[in-house]
Design a protein that fits this description.
It is a single chain. The protein is α/β, with parallel strands linked by helices and about 525 residues long. The protein has 3 domains: about 170 residues, Rossmann fold, CATH 3.40.50; about 50 residues, no CATH class; about 280 residues, no CATH class. Helix content is about 45%, strand content about 15%. It has 21 helices and 13 strands. It has an 8-stranded mixed β-sheet, sandwiched between helices. It has a 5-stranded parallel β-sheet with strand order 2-3-4-1-5, sandwiched between helices. Helix 2 crosses helix 3. The chain is globular.
C-alpha cells in the first residue's frame, strides 16, 4: 500500500497536537520514579546516546514520553522541533521511519536548534539498531527516545547498536509507586466530584456554602501515615529496638494496601479499576493475551501460539519454582528446543525473569533456571484466583517472593548486578543472591505468620557460614517480625529481618541510594 505524504502528515498531526498550539490531552501530573532519569538523558545526556525505554505492555512507557514532551514545551522548546510517532499505528508502520521524518520536516520546518524524536513501539521498525547507530553517529543535533514492549532489537542488533543507546528498564509499578498513584487518582476523583457538585449548586441557585463540603475517598491513601525514608538497607543495622517497633506500628495501615497490590498488580490501568475481577481480567486479556497472540506472532514469527500459551500457563502455575524442562515438555507434549525457545521469547517480552543457580562454570551449566513472573498478580489473573490468593498461604508466599525479586531487580538492574539463587546440600536453598563487586548478599523470603528464627533458616545459615558473607536479609510477613536476628553461631554475619511490605515500599523510594546493601 502506498502511503502519501498528505496522509502521513494528517496522521502525525493527530499525534502531535502541540504543532497546532493545543495541549496534550489527559496527561497525568503523577510521574513514575524513572521519569527523572529519562529527563536527564533528554535534556543533558551524559553521553551521546539514544534512550531505550524497555518494558512490558501497559506499564506507562507512552505516558513517560508524553510527560517528557510536555516538560520540553513548558521550558521553551519549539513545538516544531518535537516529533512523536507510534509505530503501533499501521499507517506509520508501513510508511517507515524515514518517511515519517520527511513528513515532519514538510509539516513543521525546524528552528535550527536541537530536535527531539520520541518513537513509540519502535521495535517494529526495520533495522532499528542500524538506524539508531547512524543517527547517534552522524546527527548530533537529534535526541532520540524510543520504546519497546519486546526486545528482539537488543539481541538482533546488539553489535550494530552497542554504545549507541542507554536502556531504562521499566518494570510494573513498585509498591511505593502504587500507593502514590492511588493517592493521585483518589485526589483527582475527589476534585472532579467537587467540581460537579459546585456546578450543580450554581445551576440550581441553591443557597449553599460549597466550602462546607468535604469529600473524601473511601480509599484515600493520603490518610496513610508517612513512613521514614531509608537511604540504605544497611542503616537498619544501626536502629534501636524502639525504632523497629515505632515503624512497625506506623506501617499497620499499609497492610491492606499491600495485599491489594499483590492481587491487583502493578499495571497502572489496574490501579484505576475498583473491581479486582475486572482488574485481573485486564491483565489476562488486554496484556497477556495481546503479547502471546499478537506480539509473538508479529515480532518473533511464532507459528504455534497455542503451545506458547500452554507454556506460559505452566510457568504461571510454577511461579518462583525451578524450571523442570523435562516435566514441562512431558506435560505439555512440547519438544525441548521449542520449549526452550518459548522461554527465551517470554523473557524477551518482559513477561518473566530467569535466574541461574549461584556459582560458576559447570555449577551454572548443570543447574536449573528459576522463573519469576514479571508481576506478582499475573499468576492470580491467569489462574483465575481472584482475591482468594489471601486465603492460600503458599500462593501468597510465592506472590510475595515474586514481588520482592521484582523490587530488588528494578532498583539495582542498572548496576549490572547478577541475581541468582543458591542450591546447597540436603536440598537447602536461598531464594535470592545478589552479587556486585565481589560482594555477595543473600535474601531469603519467609512469608509466614509466626516470627522467624534461626531454625527456620537452615539454607541461609549454611550459605552465610560457607561464603562468610557480612550481611544477609530475611523478608518476613508480620510487621513485628522486624529487626536484627540473633545468630551467635555466625560471628561474622549480621542478619536483618525486614517485613516484605516495608522492603517493597523502600525499594520504590527515590531516596534509597543506588547501591545494594
Amino acid at each position: 500500500m502506498n502511503i502519501t505524504n498528505e496522509q502521513l502528515i494528517t496522521v502525525l498531526s493527530q499525534f502531535n497536537p502541540w504543532w497546532r498550539g493545543e495541549a496534550i490531552a489527559d496527561l497525568p501530573t503523577w510521574q513514575r520514579a524513572s521519569f527523572p532519569e529519562l529527563l536527564k538523558w533528554v535534556l543533558n545526556p551524559p553521553a551521546p546516546r539514544a534512550v531505550l525505554l524497555s518494558g512490558a505492555r501497559q506499564i506507562g512507557k507512552t505516558t513517560l514520553l508524553r510527560q517528557a514532551i510536555q516538560h520540553l514545551l513548558n521550558n521553551g522548546v519549539a513545538a516544531a522541533n518535537i516529533l512523536y510517532a507510534t509505530f503501533d499505528h499501521p499507517m506509520i508502520k508501513m510508511a517507515g521511519i524515514d518517511a515519517v521524518i520527511a513528513a515532519w520536516y514538510e509539516r513543521e520546518p525546524r528552528t535550527g536548534n536541537v530536535e527531539y524524536l520520541f518513537l513509540d513501539e519502535a521495535h517494529t521498525i526495520r533495522d532499528l539498531g542500524t538506524w539508531v547507530k547512524h543517527q547517534v553517529d552522524f546527527n548530533k543535533q537529534r535526541r532520540i527516545v524510543f520504546t519497546g514492549s519486546a526486545i528482539p532489537l537488543i539481541s538482533s542488533n546488539q553489535e550494530s547498536g552497542v554504545g549507541r543507546w542507554h536502556t531504562i528498564r521499566l518494570t510494573t509499578l513498585s509498591f511505593y509507586e502504587y500507593i502514590q498513584l492511588k493517592a493521585y487518582i483518589d485526589k483527582t476523583h475527589t476534585v472532579d466530584f467537587q467540581k460537579m457538585v459546585l456546578e450543580y449548586i450554581k445551576s440550581t441557585n441553591l443557597d449553599t456554602d460549597f466550602n462546607a463540603f468535604k469529600i473524601k475517598s473511601a480509599q484515600d491513601t493520603e490518610l496513610l501515615p508517612k513512613l521514614p525514608a531509608v537511604k540504605s538497607l544497611r542503616e537498619l543495622f544501626d536502629w534501636s529496638s524502639a525504632e523497629f517497633y515505632r515503624v512497625a506500628e506506623l506501617a499497620q495501615p499499609y497492610i491492606g494496601q499491600f495485599n491489594d497490590y499483590l492481587i491487583r498488580g502493578g499495571f497502572p490501568q489496574t490501579v484505576r479499576i475498583k473491581s479486582i475481577t475486572e482488574a485481573q481480567r485486564l491483565i489476562r486479556e488486554d496484556i497477556i493475551d495481546r503479547v502471546l497472540k499478537r506480539d509473538m506472532t508479529a515480532l518473533f514469527g511464532v507459528r504455534h501460539p497455542f503451545e506458547l500459551e500452554k507454556t506460559f500457563l505452566y510457568l504461571c502455575a510454577h511461579d518462583g519454582d525451578l524450571l523442570d524442562m523435562q516435566n514441562l515438555c512431558q506435560n505439555l507434549e512440547v519438544k525441548r528446543p521449542t520449549a526452550q525457545r518459548f522461554i527465551e521469547l517470554l523473557e524477551a517480552s518482559h513477561l518473566i525473569y530467569r535466574l541461574q543457580v549461584f556459582g560458576y562454570g559447570t555449577e551454572v551449566l548443570r543447574g536449573k533456571d528459576k522463573i519469576y513472573l514479571a508481576d506478582a498478580a499475573i499468576a492470580s489473573a491467569v489462574l483465575l484466583r481472584g482475591n482468594t490468593l489471601l486465603d492460600n498461604p503458599t500462593a501468597l508466599g510465592i506472590a510475595t517472593e515474586t514481588a520482592v525479586f521484582k523490587h530488588l531487580y528494578a532498583r539495582y538492574y542498572a548496576q549490572q548486578i547478577r541475581f541468582s539463587y543458591w542450591h546447597g546440600k540436603k536440598q537447602h536453598e536461598v531464594d535470592l543472591i545478589a552479587e556486585i563487586d565481589r560482594q555477595v548478599i543473600p535474601f531469603e523470603v519467609k512469608y509466614r505468620m509466626q516470627n522467624t528464627g534461626v531454625n527456620h533458616l537452615t539454607g541461609l545459615m549454611q550459605f552465610c557460614q560457607e561464603k562468610k558473607v557480612p550481611y544477609a536479609y530475611v523478608i518476613t510477613k508480620s510487621l513485628h517480625d522486624f529487626g536484627l536476628l540473633d545468630t551467635p553461631h555466625l560471628p561474622h554475619t549480621r542478619v536483618m529481618k525486614i517485613p516484605a511490605l516495608l522492603l517493597c515500599y523502600w525499594m520504590g523510594r527515590s531516596e534509597l541510594l543506588q547501591t545494594i546493601d
